Amino acid sequence: MRKLKLQVQMTIDGFVAGPNGEMDWMTSGADDELMSVMNALTDSSDTMLLGRKMNDGFVDFWTSVLEQPENPLYIFARKMVDMPKVVFSKTVKESKWANTTIANGDLVEEVEKLKQREGKDIIVYGGATFVSNLIKENLIDEFNLFINPTAIGSGLTIFSKMEGNLKLELINSQRFECGEVHNTYQMKRD
Predict the structure, then answer these.
(1) Is residue 30 domain-resident?
(2) Domain contains 186
(3) What digits encode the pLDDT tens for the residues 7-28?
(4) Containing domain of residue 101, as a range?
(5) What distance in Å separates the CA atoms of residue 174 and residue 95, rounded to the nearest whole number?
(6) Which of 3, 8, 64, 154 is the most buried (most CB within 10 A)?
(7) CATH number, domain containing residue 85
(8) What local confidence, expressed as pLDDT, does residue 99 receive?
């Protein structure tokens, strides 16, 4: 069975965006080593999940990067655009992005069906509400948290809908020159 992997940028105080979705706190100047890790994580997957709210901004950003071949994120942007995507929404019926399917059904059933398919793992980048729902339903198998050396005091979190404790086991940790730390967790098995 395929794993669902979360890859998310996060502040040191646990926020994935500011109160109004701001991302200006993210570390700039990602080094080659950090980009290598992010590329490897993306390459281990062949399907991307997104929530409705994140879809439009994500589409616009990565499509604009593809118009700039000199941009250091160009190769990564090509992966974002080319990878098949599933956008979860109760209201949206179609996406302006190629390689995109809209999932309007039950979250748990839809994700479990995707996990049963043949292929590489599945990756999810956000947004905060969508990931919160995935965590609440215990659907994420691996948490890849890229911790930025920044605290913002308030904002959006992915752990807001949990019921009880989420017990994770650290399976890898890596520090990068830009100050970010990548922690990989899996669900703790007793």
Answers:
(1) no
(2) no
(3) 999 999 999 999 998 989 987 7
(4) 4-23+41-179
(5) 36
(6) 8
(7) 3.40.430.10
(8) 87
